[in-house]
Amino acid sequence: MTAEELAAVLRLMGPARHAVIGTATDPTSRADGARIAAVWDGDVLATVTWPETAASWLRQARRFATPDPDVWVVCATPAGWAAMTHRLRQSTTWSPHRTIVTSALADVRLPGIRDTRPDGTTWENR
Question: Among 6-10, 35-39, 62-66, 105-109, where is mean pLDDT lowest?
């Protein structure tokens, strides 16, 4: 994650007081999640890590959604995040409208989700 992208994530988090950070198990995703948690001024209610493949992702989805934060921030890989979003939508009250994803997930097109790019620009899928 570039410094510009990190700044964009923090801008998108805006006035949120509570966040949950979700990451894939790969070293880059975990490092990006830890970096966001380290510099953000609010409370990180949980950091949830999920594998690329799992039997159902139900346990991780519940841990990710249950704290009901102001914002969810995701640093992951497309394959694991696709499966995780499927489980989140089926089994929790998670909302893509309160979710920020990093540039590794630029091709994810869920209505309401916000994304950052390495150059610090952002977009929202409406």
Answer: 105-109
Residues facing residue 49 across a β-bridge: 23
The DSSP symbol for 59 reads H
Supply the pTM of this predicted model: 0.92
Which CA distances in Å does 116 have to 57, 69, 74, 91, 105?
A: 25, 20, 11, 27, 9
Strand 18-24 versus strand 43-50 pairing type:
parallel
Instruction: Decide: 123 and 10 in contact? Cβ < 8 Å.
Output: no
Q: What does the DSSP 8-state code read for residue 80?
A: H
Beta strands in 51-125 (DSSP E): 71-75, 99-101, 114-116, 122-124
Map residue 102 onto helix, strand or coil: coil
What is the C-alpha separation between 27 and 112, in angstroms, rounded? 27
